[in-house]
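Re: the request from the purification team.
They wanted to know what the chain is likely to look like in 3D before they choose a buffer screen. I agreed to run a prediction and write the result into the notebook, where they can find it.
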Amino acid sequence: MKYLSNAFSINMLPSNDVATVKFEKISLEEARNLLKRDEIFVSAVGHEGTAEILGNLLDRGVLFNRIAISLLDSNDILIVFQLKGRLPEGKILQEDEIKKLEYTFYKISLI
């Protein structure tokens, strides 16, 4: 399964005593390719404004879906969007403001 989130938590890891996690910084284009329009993924984006920003960046719908991802397995891919800073509460960004945001995407998987 593919997941899209704006956070990573140790609680996402399997409940056994050892897990090896691979964090790979990826470009916006790589994130778009991993989350193609015709592919299903689970959104775990916990902030409505962030879901809107991601929809604009990825050029596809992204649901605001405040869920917890638990127990990733070796077949799962987690794409994490990380803003470099915080938006003010309730801030709605215009398209030109979105283009100026500093952010990073990570591809996270178990190995």
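For the purification team: The chain has a mean pLDDT of 88.
Please add any questions underneath this entry.
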